[in-house]
Amino acid sequence: MSDARNGSLDGRTDADPLPTISVVDPRDGTPVGTLPCAAPAQVRAAITAALSSARTWSRTEPERRGALLHEAADAVEQHAEELAELTTRETGKLADDALGGVRAGVGTLRQYAELGPVHRGHSLRGGVLAADWTVPEPRGLVVALTPWNDPIAVAAGLLGAALVTGNTVIHKPSERCPHVGRRLGEVLAGVLPEGVLTTLVGGPDVGRALSSSPDVDVIAHVGSSATGHAIARAAAETGAHVVRENGGNDPLVIDDDVDPTWAAAQAALGAFANAGQICTSVERIYVHQAIAAPFLTALTEEAARRDRDGALAPLVDRRLRRAVHEQVTQALEAGAVALTGAVVPEGPGAAYPATVLRDCTAEMTVMREETFGPVAPVQIVESFAEGLRRAGEGRYGLAATVLTGRLAHTQQALADLSVGTLKVNNVFGGAPGGSAQPRGDSGDGFGYGPELLDEMTRVKVVHVEMPAG
Fold it and tell me: Matching Pfam families, A to Z (predicted)?
């Protein structure tokens, strides 16, 4: 691990030339731009600024912090079109989806602006002449490491919850979308007091330097499981509190009593939305043999329609496309059958077709690991119980979906599946203000929702009683 105190980023010092990050548009391969990575001195300066601002910011009235967060939301809203365009250019996200992500981020900032000032402790019952209560306090310095697949919405949640509870923040956006991350930081910092929020552009070395700093109190990470494990190991040395939402291999179990065409539409939405580049995308499908044939026909038609209508975003870059196609190729070599897709298109960019694979088995990588692409691998099962058993296999525990009209099967899924979120009859269903705790290699802690305010604070217990005499 690197150490921000001595100026080292994996052996790099202030005297070394700065590495850069270059991004190309995944739609057509045209350049978006090049940015320099943060130098060791910039990492040190960001930590110093955050620490020097911490006391004043933590003692700012909660109502004032909430008001500033509302102003920050206003500023993001004013720059929504610009941020959405940058998101599309760097990640390939469809224009409407990119703008929707920015608007979701605005809504999240406003939500925390309202929730923060009313975040409170609890009274405790003690002696008649005594008083006991708990007081939530900011943890201190929060490092937020955010992903590229929904860069504004995810960052707004982590940054909003950390700031409104009185923490200072250093944000490192993904190196796959440094321009949109930097611009978001500029918009937010323009409203906040100096030193309260700093954005650093960089690759894994900058993230490691921040995660291993003993001055950091919280590390909030959304990204791969491998990176999440590395962060947890670093935090074990420094004592930082870790909140992480990491990879998933979310299953979809389809019962024999549902309409196969409707089930196919649900599966297509879960597997192909944002080209499968969503943390809770449907990654593996178990369909009852009684409806498998019409289901596969309808799912294949859904996939072809998305390709034909231009409703499928490209993958973020060719590196991810190679990884996705490698999983598909391995599955085909092991006996899976491609009903559509599975071919890398010619031409520039990082497009990949909506792909449906049948006859998949548990041994295939596409069924065991996160694919993060527009791939719907299907295994036909003899019963709902078999589908549920197979859905519970593996090292991930982010989310799962079941499609069934039977209450008993819903209850069995609730009892059997060790996941943070169980969705019944809607692959992306959920009420506003919801939250979840991922399991296994999918992470730990509440990464969003009102409970994220608890993650960003620690509790002090107060006891007061009358003096003697």
Answer: Aldedh (PF00171)
3-state secondary structure the chain: CCECCCCEECCECCCCCCCEEEEECCCCCCEEEEEECCCHHHHHHHHHHHHHHHHHHHCCCHHHHHHHHHHHHHHHHHCHHHHHHHHHHHHCCCHHHHHHHHHHHHHHHHHHHHHHHHCCCCEECCCCCEEEEEEEEECCEEEEECCCCCHHHHHHHHHHHHHHCCCEEEEECCCCCHHHHHHHHHHHHCCCCCCCEEECCCCHHHHHHHHCCCCCCEEEEECCHHHHHHHHHHHHHHCCEEEEECCCCCEEEECCCCCHHHHHHHHHHHHHHHHHCCCCCCCEEEEEHHHHHHHHHHHHHHHHHHHHHCCCCCCCCHHHHHHHHHHHHHHHHCCCEEEECCCCCCCCCCCCCCEEEECCCCCCHHHHCCCCCCEEEEEEECCHHHHHHHHCCCCEECEEEEECCCHHHHHHHHHHCCCCEEEECCCCCCCCCCCCCCEECCEECCCCCCHHHHHCEEEEEEEEECCCC
Best CA proximity match to 455, nearest among 198, 290, 245, 256: 245
Q: How far apart are CA 116 and CA 161, in angstroms?
A: 7
| Mean pLDDT along residues 186-213 | 97
Q: Which of 392, 294, 373, 394 is nearest to 331 (CA)?
A: 373
Copy the structure tokens of residue 445. 């802690």
115 and 232 belong to one structural domain: yes
Tens of pLDDT, residues 434-449? 899 999 999 999 999 9
Closest CA to 249 of 368, 413, 415: 368
CA-CA-CA-CA dihedral for 197, 200, 205, 210, to nearest 10 = -10
What is the per-residue pLDDT across 25-37, written as a single tens digit (0 to 9) for each? 999 999 999 999 9
**CATH number of the domain encompassing residue 216:** 3.40.605.10
pTM of the model: 0.94
Please compute the mean of the pLDDT values over residues 146-161 and round it to a whole number: 98
Are 299 and 378 within 8 A, CB to CB?
yes
The answer on 376 and 295 residing in a single domain is yes
Shared domain for 192 and 264, answered yes or no, is no
Distance CA 17, CA 28 (A): 30
- Check pLDDT > 70 for residue 13: no
CATH code where residue 336 lies: 3.40.309.10
What domain count does the chain have? 2
Helix (H), strand (E), coil (C) string for 368-397? HCCCCCCEEEEEEECCHHHHHHHHCCCCEE
